[in-house]
Amino acid sequence: MRLLHTSDWHLGRAFHRVDMLGAQAEFIGHLVTTVRERGVDAVVVSGDVYDRAVPPLAAVRLFDDALHRLAGLGVPTVMISGNHDSARRLGVGAGLIDRAGIHLRTEPAACGTPVLLRDAFGDVAFYGLPYLEPALVKDEFGVEKAGHESVLAAAMDRVRADLATRAPGTRSVVLAHAFVTGGEASDSERDITVGGVASVPAGVFDGVDYVALGHLHGSQAITARVRYSGSPLPYSFSEADHRKSMWLVDLGADGSVGAERVDCPVPRALARIRGELAQLLADPGLARHEEAWVEATLTDPVRPADPMARLTVRFPHTLSLVFAPERAPDDPDVSYARRLAGRGDQQIAEDFVAHVRGAGPDEREQAVLRDAFDTVRADDTVREVAR
Questions:
Q1: What count of other Cβ atoms lies within 10 Å of the Cβ of residue 326?
Q2: Is the same domain home to 302 and 379?
Q3: Around 122, how many Cα atoms within 13 Å sit in the side-chain half-sphere?
Q4: Which among 37, 42, 108, 188 has the fewest CB atoms less than 10 Å away?
């Protein structure tokens, strides 16, 4: 069976101030063409279809168009909700849409109920694991402490239990939206940290033939059987080095996996340039970036006059301007920035406690801080879902 694995469409999202809806529509057209021309048997979409819980109407129209075009091909599509989606909104009408071959899986309770598709070698069971917010689903899965690994492990226990009841030789595909250990993140994914740990080990998914992941925006293989498709379009300058693509996966009769990357059309290259303004305006080596979307980091010790206006004369598609003046190592601004660099909320809070009273928090106090951050993140998620 040939699968096309994609995720993280983020319909309705802009890139800085650039409307991406036209590029997203071009991607949908490319997806449909790929399905038709490459003999795809099933499409899997691993979450973050929309960029927010209440998407703009133009994004909803584009999604509706995508569903009609995929259904018109007669090729089944299996789709889950991600952490940016409203699971309830995305799942509206799922029972009816099933009849058109579009299988929306947004309910955590249905993790162990597969979509069964068949090829010349027998059944392939597709299990949809939508984004599982630990604080909201821990009771459903009967776990004592809310955590990404515990709820995903419980969901996969249901998958393996159901798979054990299937006919011998039944192959299996899991769709999941999660941060798996070993994956390379970018700046454009929403933080899903809970309990200080966002990632889960790839071993959680043992026992299935292919795991189609969503959430991280870079296309990557955690193992030969566990892969991220990445987002089809860039959504931050941290993705400047990404090759935007989908996975074309051939699932053999024996469960073997072969995978090929299919490039996605991107409207413009991304470039990150750095240096003093005069250098950036004069350097002939930067000519290749003149038509790219540009993030410019200026290192001038004193902020130059009208930097954006001057940059856009040479780089008309400059979207982001960052000031990072080169300073002496003993400059207080430098030392403060270095102390904060790469530190999470928990670490910054613990450092503040140590600064105020002269001693850092003990284990009990660390747990109090951790629970406070988890509560805030969970409340934010509940409010987002309620929208």
A1: 10
A2: no
A3: 12
A4: 37
- Structural domain including 36 reads 2-263
Residue 34 vs residues 239, 252, 364: alpha-carbon distances, Å: 24, 20, 55
User: Which residue, chain included where needed, has tokens 């003149």?
Assistant: 290
Which tokens belong to 201? 């080990």
Enumerate the β-bridge partners of residue 119: 122
Residues 295 and 249 in one domain: no
User: 62 and 82: one domain?
Assistant: yes
pLDDT averages per 10-residue partition of the chain, 387 residues: 98 95 98 98 97 96 96 96 93 89 96 97 97 93 90 97 97 96 82 60 96 97 97 96 97 97 97 97 97 97 95 97 80 58 78 75 84 70 52
CA distances from 214 to 13, 46, 70, 345 (A): 17, 5, 20, 25
Instruction: Render pLDDT for 78-128 as a digit per residue (tens, 0 to 9).
Output: 999 999 999 989 998 888 899 999 999 999 999 999 999 999 999 999 999
pLDDT of amino acid 335: 54
Answer with the one of 323, 345, 363 that is the final residue of a domain: 323
Residues 156 and 217 occupy one common structural domain:
yes
Place of tokens 């990357």: 261
The radius of gyration computed from the CA coordinates of the chain, to the nearest angstrom, equals 23
Contact 225, 259 (CB under 8 A): no
Residue 188: strand, helix, or coil: coil
Q: Distance between CA atoms of 83 and 256, rounded to whole angstroms?
A: 30
Q: Count up the domains in the chain and report the number.
A: 3
Q: Say yes or no: 221 and 344 in one domain.
A: no
Q: How far is the C-alpha of 158 from the C-alpha of 164, rounded, in Å?
A: 10
**155 and 209 fall within a common domain:** yes
